[in-house]
Amino acid sequence: MIRCGGKRLDRPGWFYPPTVITDIRRDMPIFCEEVFGPVASVYRAADIDEAIEIANATTFGLGSNAWTRDESEQQRFIDGIEAGQVFINGMVVSYPELPFGGIKRSGYGRELSGHGIREFCNAKTVWIGSPETGDSSGGTKVE
């Protein structure tokens, strides 16, 4: 159910108003698509186990967030959720020193931070053995 927003604005450009959707079922497109934009998909769960199960049921895993003051629930969510980013008691935060990226169908690897720099590098192992003996124990390490 669309609680607010959800209609294209009557003006030039590609603008979309902030939208909140609730009462989402697994057979709805919003459940099985990765939505970008000012859209909040609100799910209802009986407990943290069901919340984690619902979140992990999607084929996407860019980011997730949960609100709880209970530190044990926070840790269960962090450990159990299948996403590249987990936000507790807040929304998406991005800093250049933190890696950013998803898992599953939400992307490959990370950008930003030292992790992101390594995504653009290809490490190569080179080992040179003795041509006379073919001995593999006394090779030369090349970086």
Distance from N terminus to C terminus (CA atoms, Å) equals 58 Å
Strands ordered across the widest β-sheet = 1-2-3
Main sheet characteristics: 3 strands, mixed
What number of structural domains do the residues give?
A: 2
E-strand count: 9
Task: Report the principal-axis shape.
Answer: elongated
Order of helices and strands: EEHEHEEHEEHEE
Oligomer: single chain
Strand content: 15-25%
Q: Helix coverage percent of residues? A: 10-25%
Structural class: alpha/beta
Low-confidence stretches: none
Radius of gyration: 23 Å
Mean pLDDT: 86
Q: What's the total helix number?
A: 4
What do these coordinates show?
- The chain has 143 residues and is α/β, with parallel strands linked by helices.
- Helices cover 21% and strands 19% of the residues.
- The protein contains 4 helices and 9 strands, in the order E-E-H-E-H-E-E-H-E-E-H-E-E.
- It has helices spanning 29-32, 48-56, 71-80, 113-119; strands at 2-4, 19-21, 39-41, 60-61, 63-66, 85-88, 103-104, 126-128, 140-142.
- The strands form 4 sheets. The chain has a 3-stranded mixed β-sheet, with no helix packed on it.
- 7% of the residues are buried.
Short account of what is shown:
Keywords: Oxidoreductase. The chain has 143 residues and is α/β, with parallel strands linked by helices. The chain has 4 helices and 9 strands, in the order E-E-H-E-H-E-E-H-E-E-H-E-E.
